[in-house]
Design brief:
CATH architecture: Alpha-Beta Barrel
CATH topology: Aconitase, domain 4
Number of domains: 1
Strand order of the largest sheet: 4-3-2-1-5-6-7
Low-confidence stretches: none
Helix content: 10-25%
Largest sheet: 7 strands, mixed
Order of helices and strands: EHHHEHEEEEEHH
Shape: globular
Number of strands: 7
Distance between the termini: 20 Å
CATH superfamily: Aconitase, domain 4
Mean pLDDT: 90
Oligomer: single chain
Strand content: 15-25%
CATH class: Alpha Beta
């Protein structure tokens, strides 16, 4: 299984915790992804929610998604149309759609092409750099190929 995702980089730094992604108080207001996307990064980048576009790629440094294990942090990112998160490392509470790689050369607004498969690579159009990503587990690739966890479980009901 091999597929590509292309989009513009939206850059953040290290230790982006789930409360930075979306304030925990917002989950009391709604669990609807279409509503939650309006509050993405409101405490650290108030303009982000209005500027993010479907297909943007979230890029961060080390320890992305640390903090409390809030499902709304993932839901808000998905609701904004962000299909992939690149970071140097992820907290286990946010290990859902990540690609681990060296993100230090990726700049805000740069065009990225991510080829996801047995050997995942990130291509930066601005400098023609190719970044090798950490391997993605075969079971995760199967889930991605099925279109997500729910479609995968429907296909493999004995799981």
């Amino acid at each position: 299984m091999q597929f590509s995702v292309t989009g513009l980089a939206r850059r953040f730094g290290d230790d982006v915790n789930t409360d930075y992604i979306i304030s925990s108080q917002r989950k009391r207001e709604s669990l609807d992804p279409a509503v939650l996307k309006n509050f993405l990064f409101e405490t650290i980048a108030p303009e982000f929610a209005q500027s993010v576009r479907i297909g943007n790629i979230l890029v961060a440094g080390k320890n992305f998604g640390c903090g409390s294990a809030m499902e709304v942090a993932v839901t808000a990112v998905v609701g904004a149309g962000i299909r992939v998160v690149l970071a140097q490392s992820f907290a286990r509470t946010y290990f859902r759609n990540p690609v681990e790689c060296d993100t230090s050369a990726i700049r805000e607004g740069g065009t990225l092409q991510i080829d996801i498969g047995a050997h995942t690579q990130v291509r930066c159009a601005s400098n023609d750099q190719v970044i090798e990503a950490a391997p993605i587990a075969p079971d995760i690739l199967k889930i991605l190929d099925a279109g997500g966890l729910v479609p995968y479980l429907r296909r493999h009901s004995s799981f």
